[in-house]
Amino acid sequence: xxxxxxxxxxxxxxxxxxxxxxxxxxxxxxxxxxxxxxxxxxxxxxxxxxxxxxxxxxxxxxxxxxxxxxxxxxxxxxxxxxxxxxxxxxxxxxxxxxxxxxxxxxxxxxxxxxxxxxxxxxxxxxxxxxxxxxxxxxxxxxxxxxxxxxxxxxxxxxxxxxxxxxxxxxxxxxxxxxxxxxxxxxxxxxxxxxxxxxxxxxxxxxxxxxxxxxxxxxxxxxxxxxxxxxxxxxxxxxxxxxxxxxxxxxxxxxxxxxxxxxxxxxxxxxxxxxxxxxxxxxxxxxxxxxxxxxxxxxxxxxxxxxxxxxxxxxxxxxxxxxxxxxxxxxxxxxx
Length: 335
What we know:
Elements: H1 3-20, H2 22-27, H3 29-50, H4 58-61, H5 67-80, H6 85-97, H7 101-114, H8 119-132, H9 140-152, H10 157-169, H11 173-180, H12 189-205, E1 224-230, H13 232-235, E2 245-251, E3 261-266, E4 272-276, E5 293-301, E6 313-314, E7 318-321, E8 328-332
Parallel strand pairs: 1-8
Antiparallel strand pairs: 1-4, 2-3, 2-5, 5-6, 5-7
């Protein structure tokens, strides 16, 4: 609450009331002064109870210009409604980017408490516990999270990678090698080439022979065709121009908001059919070819950024089992 604003408002109320009540003040000073005091205090109290104090805080009203601003907005929103697992996960990610690893760990713990079956949250929460540790070790609680995540989604690369790291830290080299080996056929070639020596180091430490790179499936075989068009009525909107950005996004169902694959188009290119592949992934450890299903949608972004902004228009998400047998059709239209 901005106390300075309330004081100024109260003073203005006093001035206005003084002008209005001048005849009363002149005739009955005590009564007039009492009315002035009640009016000033009442105005402040009424604003305190019914006003919108957040509107006085520029950090809440304006778009965040820094990580600190984004964290402040998330903290404020979660203070009002704590039962938002996605909000806690986003705050945890923001803390991590800001180097506040202990706060990130605690925020992820709240996200997993609200969504205990969310594989992405479990994996991120385990990683955050290791990052908050002085020696970057996965503690028993982190390992339990990774085991749960891997059980729920055996194809989750991050959970499997971190679980292997945790097992190596414990000296369970054979188990670590066994955990990592399936990744060799799933991750991109460059990542697999970097991982193979780690697998073999773990195998040698366990007294096992080294292995060769397994046969790899083509990542392009699981590309996803998406056809996008815009409703003619929306195309006539005064805000829409030929250069307005359109994002075609595939993300994990019920998972973290970071896309598995994304492609940017200009509105002038619509209608268009795009083929989303591993090359469209913004994350090296999460590829389209490694997941079983995705949610696909298109976003008309007036701000030109991939993150959803005020006034942006999205299609309803379509859940697709991979590999898809046909193209997904999306139409941007007024909400």
